Amino acid sequence: MKKSRADTAETRKRIIAAASTVFLAQGLAGTGIAEIMAAAGMTPGGFYRHFDSKEHLIAEANSAASERLLALFEAATRGKAPGEALATIVAMYLDQSEEVSALCSLACLGSELRHSDSEIKAAAMRGHERMLAFVAGQTRQMGVADHQSLANAVVSTLVGAVTIARLAGDPARAKVILDNARTVVGGLIQRPPAPGAGH
After folding, report:
1. CA-CA distance, 38 to 80, in Å (whole number)?
2. Phi-psi bin for 79: left (phi > 0), alpha (psi -120 to 50), beta?
């Protein structure tokens, strides 16, 4: 029996969700189509009915991971004052565990994304821009004169710190990296960059 459009769309979403989880946990190069389809509860043969290539799926999965992380931020900051909301975002980002639903693809997959094709890079940068816009929304409400520069500095510090902490291997060393990032971001928030800085 032929699947309805709704069924097809739901199946596609299931594959993207499974791919996002597996990619974040295992990386891009080390994950094959058969493994992704198995995680989605499907056989490999159905893959090309939904996606043109693995690269096409990586781009879609990257977008899904970004949306999931932003949804967590939105839920956690709803109703909070902007300063408290920004502190919550910083804490959540730096406290990323191995729980895949709360991982950022920029920090987890950045080195692989750098060597990916233009479609994947574009998807990753859209995720970065959405995160940047979310943080800039808080810094703007805080009355920071150059709220965009502050948001850029905060996001870059967070992504960089988590990337290096995940590479560190040693939990004690990773903690030092993340604690330093908390201190730096706290200083940035207390003493925002002067208007025009960072442009």
Report:
1. 41
2. left
CA distance 137 to 141: 6
The structural domains of the chain, ordered by start, are 5-190 (1.10.357.10)
Burial class (CB in 10 A: 0-12, 13-18, 19+), 13: middle
Please state, in angstroms and as integers, the Cα–Cα distance from residue 51 to each residue in 65, 152, 156, 172, following that order.
18, 34, 32, 42
- Long-range contacts, stretch 92-95, CB < 8 angstroms, 24+ apart: 93/158, 93/162, 94/158, 94/161, 94/162, 94/178, 94/181, 94/182, 95/178
Query: What is the 8-class DSSP label of residue 46?
Result: G
Q: Convert the pLDDT of each residue in 176-188 to its tens digit.
A: 999 999 999 998 8
pLDDT digits (tens, 9 = 90+) for 89-138: 999 999 876 555 668 889 988 888 888 889 999 999 999 999 999 999 99
* Residue whose pair of structure tokens reads 């967070």 in the numeric block: 158
SS3 of residue 155 by DSSP: helix
What amino acid is encoded at 71 in this protein?
A
d(CA 180, CA 182): 5
Q: Are 120 and 59 in contact (CB under 8 A)?
A: yes
Q: Which two tokens stand for residue 53?
A: 């290539």
CA dihedral 31, 96, 56, 53 (to 10 degrees): 10
